[in-house]
Amino acid sequence: MRKDDLLSDEFLKQFKTGDELSAFLKQIQKRGIEKMLEGELDGHLDYSKHEKSSNKNSRNGYSSKKIKTSFGESEISVPRDRDASFNPIIVPKRGNMVDGIENVIVSLYAKGMSNADIEEQIREVYNFDVSTSTISRITDKIANDIVAWQNRPLEPVYLIVWMDGIVFKVRENSKVINKTVYIAVGLRRDGKKEVLGLWLGKNETAAFWMRVLTDIRARGTEDILITATDNLNGFTDTIKNVFPESKTQICVVHQIRNASRYVVWKDKKAFTADMKHIYNAPNQDAAKAALEDFANKWNDKYSYAIKSWQDNWEELTVFYEFPIEIRKIIYTTNLIENLNGKIRKYTKNKLSFPTDDAVMKSVYLAIREATKKWSMPIRNWGIILNQFLTIYEKRVRL
What we know:
- By secondary structure, the protein is α/β, with parallel strands linked by helices.
- Helix content is 52%, strand content 18%.
- It has 17 helices and seven strands.
- It has helices at 3-12, 18-45, 99-110, 115-126, 132-140, 142-150, 206-218, 235-242, 252-260, 265-279, 284-298, 303-311, 313-316, 324-330, 334-347, 356-370, 381-396; strands at residues 59-69, 72-81, 157-172, 175-187, 193-201, 223-229, 247-250.
- It has a five-stranded mixed beta sheet with strand order 5-4-3-6-7, with helices on both faces.
- The longest helix has 28 residues, at 18-45.
């Protein structure tokens, strides 16, 4: 056993119960906060305690303040200055909660807990009361973060941008209506994914997506090589209007769902098996032949499904223009649908939202939680980047 381990064991033996240890740690934290406040005042006045200074402002004793920390409620001494211009960072004026607790509250809210549930959790774990109105005030501070995040500059080039919408129930004019949060996720040149923004609208339309794409362009994005979208009427033309050189791939999974919607149960297994021959073909010519076979077999019963493949053929088969590795990541909008699934998981306890700001706050916090692990490039990034450079060298290096 190392010497420092032995000392730690001996030190801990003096505490007979967990409550005694917690009380000791609470006292240590209180002293630490008070020392940090002294340091903050030194920096504010630009001289240390007991030093002489020509600064007209000076120390002016202490005031007592109750604060809430991870060890419960404590009473601390807060140093004051004569002109009352000192506003500590660690425990701001008119604030009574250390940042760590505020972060816990925001994290619990992001994971879908209601204000009442958070209030109960804080009481059980930290042994002090925090009102639901205080919880709302803390989470409402996120509004400024959302504005800054939504208006941040974007990359000049994204190799792929996936776009989709997710529907929520929101109260408006005494009614609860459906509204869509539009989400765009970009693949950067370093192979990492990035949520480009969130936009709230009533319906998923090509006109609204025009606004989204225009906003992305205004924030610095000059080129998108490939867009992956659902089969929204007019979407391809909308993208071309803003990013004229972008290739648009309609999500094949959305197409399969749409084509299968009106197929009776007894035909569904054979119908979907035949569709696989289309999108699993090795090249576009083979896929075209598979579509013809598919049409010959099913057109009499399901002409609408066949027509949906034929009408969207060019955008459905863009992925055949690319090597296998790139095909796999533009083939579907699964990446953004997985993100939507996590957002749903974090917001499932909220059956409806009282305001637009409330739904945007919840979705933003859910995305922040869901994307914490987006720190590494996507799989096989070296191979994929080389393929993009071979196909789009000048545009990738923009």
